[in-house]
Amino acid sequence: MPAQPSHNPPPATPDALRADARENRERILRAAREAYALHGIDVPISAIARRAGVGVATLYRRFPTRTSLITEAFAEQLTECSGALDEALEDPDPWRGFCSVFRKVCAMQAADRGFTHAFLARFPDESSYAGERDRAEEGLGLLIRRAKEAGALRPDFDVSDVVLVLLANNGVTNGAGPDATAASRRLVGYLLDSFRATPARGPLPPPAGLELDRLGAAG
Amino acid sequence: MPAQPSHNPPPATPDALRADARENRERILRAAREAYALHGIDVPISAIARRAGVGVATLYRRFPTRTSLITEAFAEQLTECSGALDEALEDPDPWRGFCSVFRKVCAMQAADRGFTHAFLARFPDESSYAGERDRAEEGLGLLIRRAKEAGALRPDFDVSDVVLVLLANNGVTNGAGPDATAASRRLVGYLLDSFRATPARGPLPPPAGLELDRLGAAG
Predict the structure, then answer these.
(1) How many residue pairs from chains A and B have C-beta atoms closer than 8 A?
(2) Residue A161 clears pLDDT 80, i.e. is over it
């Protein structure tokens, strides 16, 4: 048999290969974030591959599990959330720290719809998110205790009210269209006002006992 | 040609016919409410007909336009809303009246997801909803003015904050699953607390200027 002429491009340099791989990776992560924002984290892998313009096999080579893709896609936002919590815990004013976490996380929710879908949502417990989530719950618990002990946060504030805020903010940012950021700020302003301890408060309806996992189901 | 034997059932009495038609109508309205709850008010008529187990032609005979179907499907809830507003306006205590409207409408939202989709949403202005909406806006304006004049409602409360509450409540009831009612009550409790005029309030972020129409886009 005569030798086939090669139609392949000349072999790329290692640098060019690395740049290619990096670009592919970024394209997949961007497509994943867009798809999650539009359709939630249950969107099929094939739809993400199509959106990124890569084959499903290529996608799986870079991100062997669904969880690894989601984790990577939102790594930046998760780091930002942990950072917000750490900063809040270091704030010498417990009330200011408490407020800053809500303001930052709700602003992130308003800026990126996909984030809510992914945030601490329906992940298998062995995923790297589970550790983050436990750490977040611990940090929030401490933040709340400090703010109550300082007499700044109303004593009947419940840890499940954190989820209540995030779900409410999700509703506002989903529904407010181009006014999402302004509407989210206004909502958070009102809610923080009502969380503040003041002598004249009446009794509240009991806490709804929402778990952080509920956020996963919030469209 | 020989006469065809008739396979039709014996002719129904007028009463039975009326009962049949009524049952059909109820079945269609029930299917419509379920479909709106699941998929929003943009769900195709054919899907509603399928769910009701009737033909598209039958559905169109009873409800010649999409708007007539939506209006009928939520007639009861709309009447309840108007009633809540009227009662609130008659309450000698403007603050109690103000609170009662939010409590009632948010409880309705929590009980029926489809209601939010339909509530004052993206209707052609000539529909019978437009008149209801104008009336609701007028009534709300009056309710707010009275509560402010009584010194009970904070002066920086804006009429667009009504939409903010409904969007937030929508997020909570969509996301809270079986805890929807408890979560909605808790949220409304917090928000009404923060709407109450008290001397120590700080400034709020500016109103988001949301229009009632925004509710239509809230999934």
Answers:
(1) 140
(2) yes
